[in-house]
Amino acid sequence: MGVKEIADRLRPNVESAGFQHSAKFDTGPDGVVVIDGNTISTEDAPTDCTISLSLADLEALIAGDLSPTMAFMTGKIKVEGDMSVAMALGQMVG
């Protein structure tokens, strides 16, 4: 699964979540998924929070096979910017 498929899978959750911030999942060379309010895209843009992780870890996170807390604590994901925005993403992923 690529970032476009991940964005398509997350779209219904993003559109209905009432998220008031912007966040980016940055998978490096595999691309980005940017959530800005109730929109989602794969076009890079500045955001309140950037979550860096591998594409495989993003897939596992979306599938519910990877705990966001455990991934952060073990260094599988790195968060830059507003940590409270990263925590608010929990309602949309997994």
Automatic annotation (TrEMBL):
Kindly give the Pfam families that the UniProt entry links to this protein: SCP2
Gene3D superfamilies linked to this entry: SCP2 sterol-binding domain (3.30.1050.10)
Domain of life according to the entry? Bacteria
Q: Where is each SCP2 domain found?
A: 34-92
Please name the InterPro entries in this protein's record. SCP2_sterol-bd_dom, SCP2_sterol-bd_dom_sf
Gene Ontology cellular-component terms listed = cytosol
Q: Which PANTHER family match?
A: SCP2 STEROL-BINDING DOMAIN-CONTAINING PROTEIN 1, STEROL CARRIER PROTEIN 2 SCP-2 FAMILY PROTEIN
Instruction: Spell out the protein name for this chain.
Output: SCP2 sterol-binding domain-containing protein
